[in-house]
Write a structure and sequence with these properties.
- The chain has helices at residues 3-15, 53-63, 95-109, 141-148, 152-163, 169-178, 188-192, 201-210, 223-233, 261-274, 292-297, 308-313, and strands at residues 20-25, 28-33, 42-48, 67-74, 84-92, 112-116, 127-130, 214-222, 237-246, 249-255, 282-286, 300-304, 316-318.
- With 332 residues, it is an alpha/beta fold.
- The chain has two domains: 3-116, Alpha-Beta Plaits, CATH 3.30.70.260; 127-329, 3-Layer(aba) Sandwich (Rossmann fold).
- Helix 12 (308-313) links the parallel strand 12 and strand 13 (316-318).
- The chain has twelve helices and 13 strands.
- Pathway: Amino-acid biosynthesis; L-serine biosynthesis; L-serine from 3-phospho-D-glycerate: step 3/3.
- Belongs to the HAD-like hydrolase superfamily. SerB family.
- Pfam families: Hydrolase.
- It catalyses: O-phospho-L-serine + H2O = L-serine + phosphate; O-phospho-D-serine + H2O = D-serine + phosphate.
- Keywords: Amino-acid biosynthesis, Hydrolase, Magnesium, Metal-binding, Serine biosynthesis.
Length: 332
């Protein structure tokens, strides 16, 4: 970060004092004492590393024809995890256009942003169900197993198409798993022992567990990895596909029913009932098209470094920050 960027960021933080709201209209900022009542019909959350006024004004100008900004202030988690986080009360004017504008502005100004009419409460027990591959961890395990069979490139292409929603998930999984035939089960430990966790996942889990949230994995991947991560991260449950094996080698088939998008949605509903969690306190997070059913089943769906079709349909997105940023979309 240059000296100018550091100064610009510090100037923004000092302008947003703890007990102060700002209003931005006609490219002008006005300061106001903290109001006692909420206004608007939605909350706009903006976050990123070392935000400055150039980025913030650029984003607000870009969204200006889709919403009315009433006031904006520092989020209570601003700088807690190293990110600048701002919270604004807004009134939505054009929801469809706002959704498109949000994605454009996020990429243009390298900021994350999301708009919500209601937010799950951090301090109340809730349920978070997460996809595993390319969400909790940074890799697709099936592609890495395929590498052991010298078929990674072939399988990875199918995986990418499936995650974009261009292929039927069940058929694509059967096709990909068939390529794994003959791989020794013992060799899967090579992958399991070096699973790269996604940045921010451990902070997210720690903060939610401290507040009695229930946490689970619902994955179209495999129990060999999901069960391990469930134990390693201290989660409450894990649902995934079971790879069939015989004589210490994969048969190229899965055992039992396939865990697909519908199964993931049913997992949200089942666990919410089992843990007595109200719907308003349920969150689903993922990156692929097969995560959309559980995102729609939950009160809040979070797209995490996701495919374009998922960003378009999820409630909110995390495009640039780590998974701890999910906390910014909660009412704290």
């Amino acid at each position: 970060m240059s000296d100018y960027q550091r100064f610009a960021h510090q100037f923004l933080l000092e302008s947003f004092q703890t007990r102060t709201y700002l209003n931005y209209s006609g490219q002008q900022w006005k300061k106001q004492v903290t109001p006692t009542q909420d206004c608007g019909d939605a909350v706009l959350t903006i976050f990123g590393q070392a935000i400055n006024f150039h980025q913030l004004e650029g984003m607000l100008d870009h969204l200006g024809d889709s919403l009315i900004l009433h006031r904006i202030k520092r989020h209570s988690l601003c700088n807690v995890y190293g990110d600048t986080v701002l919270r604004a009360d807004v009134s939505i004017q054009d929801e469809a256009r706002l959704k498109a504008r949000m994605g454009q502005a996020s990429e243009a100004f390298h900021l994350d942003a999301g708009i919500q009419r209601q937010q799950p409460r951090l301090k109340e027990p809730g349920l978070l169900v997460m996809d595993m591959d390319s969400t909790v961890i940074q890799i697709e395990c099936i592609d890495e197993i395929a590498a052991l069979a010298d078929r990674k490139e072939e399988v990875a292409k199918v995986t990418e198409q499936a995650m974009q929603g261009k292929l039927d998930f069940d058929r694509s999984l059967v096709q990909r798993v068939s390529c794994l035939k003959g791989v020794e089960v013992a060799r899967l430990e090579q992958i399991r022992n070096r699973l790269p966790l996604t940045a921010g996942i451990q902070i997210l889990i720690k903060e939610l567990k401290m507040r009695n949230w229930r946490l689970a994995i619902a994955s179209g991947g495999f129990t060999f990895f999901a069960d391990y991560l469930c134990q390693r991260l201290g989660l409450d449950d894990a649902v995934a596909n079971q790879l069939e094996a015989s004589d210490g080698k994969l048969t190229g088939r899965v055992s039992g029913a396939i865990v697909n998008g519908q199964t993931k949605a049913e997992t949200i509903e089942r666990l919410a009932k089992a843990y007595d969690v109200p719907h308003r306190q349920t969150i689903a997070a993922g990156d692929g098209a097969n995560d959309l059913p559980m995102m729609h089943a939950a009160s809040l769906g979070v797209a995490c470094h996701a495919k374009p079709t998922v960003n378009d349909q999820a409630g909110v997105s995390i495009r640039h920050c780590g998974l701890h940023a999910m906390l910014y979309y909660l009412d704290v």
